[in-house]
Write a structure and sequence with these properties.
about 35% strand; about 40% helix
């Protein structure tokens, strides 16, 4: 099982966005980016979903509930698509909300 877990961790690291990630704190997700970057578009991305993994014959759900800030709607949608590829087994919800 350690190889499976290491593979899951590696897969998760590949899909993390390159912009600042605020984890599960939506109020802070775009605060730093919005103040620091002179951009006209600011998008709050939200992804909630899970992945079923097996630990010694027992199914476990690895759950994600992340908020991230983007400077383009296209980037937000791409992040959601990548997160869904890894954490799309258990349906959650996802939103890309324009802030400005």
């Amino acid at each position: 099982m350690p190889r499976v877990r290491a593979g899951l961790i590696a897969a998760c690291l590949l899909v993390l966005p390159t912009l600042a990630q605020a984890g599960s704190e939506p109020a802070r997700a775009c605060a730093t980016t919005g103040a620091a970057l002179p951009v006209s578009d600011l998008v709050l991305g939200h992804f909630r979903g899970g992945r079923i993994v097996w630990d010694g014959g027992t199914p476990l759900i690895v759950w994600r509930d992340d908020y991230t800030c983007f400077t383009a709607m296209k980037s937000c949608k791409a992040w959601q698509r990548d997160m869904n590829a890894v954490y799309g087994n258990v349906e959650g919800d996802r939103t890309c909300m324009p802030l400005r």
